[in-house]
Design a protein that fits this description.
CATH architecture of the largest domain: 3-Layer(aba) Sandwich
Radius of gyration: 20 Å
Number of helices: 9
Number of strands: 12
Number of domains: 2
Order of helices and strands: EHEHEEHEHEHEHHEEEEHEH
Structural class: alpha/beta
CATH class of the largest domain: Alpha Beta
Distance between the termini: 27 Å
Strand order of the largest sheet: 3-2-1-4-5-6-12
Low-confidence stretches: none
CATH topology of the largest domain: Rossmann fold
CATH superfamily of the largest domain: NAD(P)-binding Rossmann-like Domain
Helix content: 25-40%
Mean pLDDT: 95
Strand content: 15-25%
């Protein structure tokens, strides 16, 4: 029997690509397409609105869902994530959150929800990006403090949060590998008479423009050489297929706050 999943933020860029990719997977069935309650498309056929004729004609956009889902995938907004969390707790539905720009309070509530349901909060669901994080950790430990770490991320002009959740996760990985304090050692861009770079700094720079899907480069620079690690997303399908892979894990997982690398089978 196919895994029955729902999408929160169904009309967003990621929601549409997840629906399109799932249509090619016989073991998956999209059963709910959720959008914000005041959206004018509520009640209309999802496939027709999204330009996805392969979707079932009876699948309509809704403010919530009825019945049982094996997993809900959320790529919406912080407000949408809050509503999705509340509904998932009420219905005991496993939850994958790919929404970024979440407040510390909401992140804490998502972690606490692991006592009741399986939850994964992932700043990036791409298998490639999560492999990159492993490489960043290994490089940071091997190179040591003699190499300065700088992160440059680039995304499309419509992205609402900066820096990206993935860039912040990369910075966290570097800080953990070097036993740094991210709150005091993370530097967002530089301007004016910033003075010499402190050895403990982790630089982070955000670029916004055009239709860039997502790029992240980490520079490890020393006196004499430089190493660069880069991930470039060519399309959103890399995130969509990773999200579906994680949803399969969550559907069979016990309650808990699970890590995305575990959900993707990388750890």
């Amino acid at each position: 029997m196919p895994l029955s999943f729902g999408l929160s933020g169904a009309l967003g860029r990621m929601g549409r690509r997840i629906a399109a990719c799932a249509a090619d997977e016989p073991d998956l069935a999209l059963a709910a397409a959720v959008i914000r309650p005041d959206h004018p498309a509520v009640g209309t056929p999802f496939g027709a609105v999204a330009g996805l004729p392969a979707l079932p004609a009876g699948l309509r956009l809704a403010a919530s869902w009825d019945g049982r889902l094996d997993c809900l995938i959320d790529f919406s907004t912080p407000a949408g994530t809050r509503a999705a969390l509340d509904r998932c707790l009420a219905t005991r539905t496993p939850l994958l959150v790919g929404t970024t720009g979440l407040s510390p309070d909401l992140l804490a509530d998502l972690a606490a929800a692991g006592a009741t349901i399986p939850v994964v909060v992932a700043p990036n669901t791409s298998v490639g990006v999560n492999v990159l994080l492993h490489l960043v950790a290994a490089a940071t430990r091997a190179l040591g403090p003699g190499y300065d770490a700088e992160i440059v991320e680039a995304h499309h002009r419509e992205k609402k949060d900066a820096p990206s959740g993935t860039a912040l996760r990369i910075a966290q990985v570097i800080a953990e590998a070097r036993s740094l304090d991210l709150a005091s050692d993370l530097v967002h861009g530089r301007r004016g008479a910033a003075g010499p770079r402190r050895p403990s700094e982790i630089g982070l720079h955000a670029v916004r423009g055009g239709d860039i899907v997502g790029e992240h480069t980490i520079f490890f620079s020393a006196l004499g050489d430089r190493i660069e690690l880069t991930h470039r997303a060519h399309s959103r399908d890399t995130f969509a297929r990773g999200a579906l892979r994680a949803a399969r894990f969550l559907a069979a997982a016990p309650a808990g706050a699970h890590r995305i690398e575990v959900a993707l089978g990388l750890a």
